[in-house]
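hey so i finally got around to running the thing on that chain from the lab meeting. sorry it took forever, my laptop kept dying and i had to restart like 3 times. anyway pasting the input first so we r on the same page abt which one it is
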Amino acid sequence: MLRRTSLWGSEDALRNADCELWIVSADSQSAVFGERFNPQFEMHNPQWEHTTVLLREAVDLVAPRPGGVYVDGTLGGGGHAEEVLKRSEPDGVLVGLDQDKEAVARSRERLARYGRRAIICQENFRDLKQVLAEFKIERVDGVLLDLGLSWFHLRSPERGFSFMTEGPLDMRMDAGRSTTAADLVNTLSRHDLARIIREYGEDTKAYAIAKAIERARDREPITSTTQLAQIVSAVFPPYPPRRIHPATLTFQALRIAVNDELGALRDGLEQAVNLLKPGGRVAIISFHSLEDRIVKQAFAAHAKGCICPPRFPVCRCGKKPDMKVLTKRPVTASKDEIAANPAARSAKLRAAEKLPV
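ok and heres what got predicted. didnt touch it at all, straight out
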């Protein structure tokens, strides 16, 4: 049964939602909705709010305590941040970052009652070291990142993240960035578009989609979400019905490219590890394989000691592990959480702890 809180934690999670949402019409090659779901109603109905994914599990792994200093690098709706502040009472401090000014405004309102214990900034977590230096914070006890796309982004057509409603083809998390998704689809070569869709969307039809985009933009500029969705949909055969809209992976790929999400993750993760105190922890929730692979490999690299070639009889590199992986396998949502919020199905949580130097 489709629940009305279903899909808004991450549009990428559509691929795992337990409902068949989209059907491609054979005559118009356009996406239409099933009878059980009205996107216009859902997207704009204020009673359907963002649900924090893996709230207890993520904060348990960060293990907040009184007097600690913690970072939530992706504030979003402020759910994880508030739980960290509750568990670190009476004097724990949380530095909350988000590159989206609307998320920052929401979090400031939600966390206002914590006063000076909550430091809220509009910044990208890839600049964590610089932000902490401004507040004269040298080391922290924990860092948490939730990499999912927020419900607030998806229900704001003017942000251009969703193909479900008409809106400008934007996709910038930070409106101050100069490049939009429209800039990419209208200016990049077919080869570069195919590379982005293949690498960031992992779509096997990347070249065909890029070719269709190139043909369409030769006729007129591609400026809206629904316009792009229809172009991509036309690449796919009309049968059989799909569990996700054909444009899901293309939109994911463009969003990642516009915001340099994977580069930011690599930068922010390394800074988080370097800024942790011994015993400090970093916990990261990812929603697709590209992110999860980066987190898994980074944790493994920091947990590994000697990197000398096997032929060396003794270690010459002197490298020692500086992190201990706390999650041998990623933590995933429980059946109850998935039933209440199917978007949580895609979430994978990994954590690691800083070792004494």
